[in-house]
Amino acid sequence: MRLHVCAVGRLRTGPERELVDDYLARAGRTGRAVGFGKFAVHEVEDRKGAGLLAEAELLRRAVPDGARVVALDERGTAFTSPDFANLLRDWCDCGVRDAAFLIGGADGLESGLRDSAHVKLAFGSMVWPHMLARLMLAEQLYRAVSILAGTPYHRA
């Protein structure tokens, strides 16, 4: 299964970008052994400033056809890391080809896009800046495939 991070905004060069790239590279290497393909990042920008609806349309275009969609939203479900890993494993075992993780811009995700997601995922009830949400997602994806691969990274 291929995993896609679809995010509003461009992550500039710097420590956050380096960490995201590092975690996704690790996830890609570790994930191959347990059925996961390359991890892709799709960055979209509403250059005209048309707002949430325009961002939602750009994100929809970034999601591969037939993908399971996970919307990052503070109103979503806060999974444990093993439960998140099991969700990904279940999708992979059921033949899901792609899963897309949506990260909104400064105003979050448009309600229709958020509500159409298969899963709403929260990193707690606090709101996080999109660059930190992307970093936390990258780390949790690496942690999930590490759990599934049986590596010692996750110490529960």
Which features does this protein show?
alpha/beta, Alpha/beta knot, 21% strand, 5 helices, globular, 156 residues
Characterize the structure shown.
With 156 residues, this protein is α/β, with parallel strands linked by helices. It has a single domain (2-149), classed as 3-Layer(aba) Sandwich (Alpha/beta knot), CATH 3.40.1280.10. Helix content is 43%, strand content 21%. It is built from five helices and five strands. It has helices at residues 15-31, 52-62, 81-93, 111-116, 130-149, and strands at residues 2-8, 39-44, 68-77, 98-103, 119-121. A five-stranded parallel sheet has the order 2-1-4-3-5. The longest helix has 20 residues, at 130-149. It is globular and about 45 Å long. The model has no long low-confidence stretch (mean pLDDT 95).
Topology record:
Blueprint: E1 2-8, H1 15-31, E2 39-44, H2 52-62, E3 68-77, H3 81-93, E4 98-103, H4 111-116, E5 119-121, H5 130-149
CATH homologous superfamily title = SPOUT methyltransferase, trefoil knot domain
Straight-line distance between termini: 25 Å
State the name of the first-level CATH class: Alpha Beta
Low-confidence stretches: none
Provide a count of the helices. 5
- Would you count the extended β strands for me? 5
Helix content: 40-55%
The string of secondary-structure elements, in order, is EHEHEHEHEH
Within the largest sheet, what's the order of strands?
2-1-4-3-5
- Characterize the main sheet: 5 strands, parallel
- The radius of gyration over CA amounts to 15 Å
> What fraction of the residues are assigned to beta strands by DSSP?
15-25%
Mean pLDDT: 95
**Count of domains:** 1
The backbone outline, from C-alpha atoms, is: globular
The CATH level-2 architecture is identified as: 3-Layer(aba) Sandwich
Structural class: alpha/beta
What CATH calls the topology is Alpha/beta knot
